Amino acid sequence: MGILMDLILGGVCGFIAGKLMGKEGGMIRNIILGLLGGAVGGFVFGLVGLAATGWMGRALISIVGACLCLWVGDKFF
Questions:
Q1: Are 29 and 58 in contact (CB under 8 A)?
Q2: How many domains does the chain have?
Q3: Which of 13, 60, 64, 71 registers the highest number of CB atoms within 10 A of its CB?
């Protein structure tokens, strides 16, 4: 059940990040973006000593990480 919830949370976070950054994409792109954003956000926040607790904290970190991934992607592609 944990993997399913991570996929759902990743998809929602990817969707929110896409809307915040003004990007459109499909469901698969949103899921991948949200999961990648969770990893990137966890790494970046870990560098400054912050950690997420609960699903809301993980969601916020995933959204910030996904926005960061979109921003970097825009700069290079």
A1: no
A2: 1
A3: 13
- pTM (2 decimals)? 0.85
Tens digit of pLDDT for each residue in 1-27?
477 887 888 888 989 998 998 887 777
C-alpha 44, offset from chain centre: 12
pLDDT per residue over 36-54, tens digit each?
888 888 889 999 998 888 8
- The string of DSSP codes covering the chain is -HHHHHHHHHHHHHHHHHHHTT----HHHHHHHHHHHHHHHHHHHHHTT----HHHHHHHHHHHHHHHHHHHHHHH-
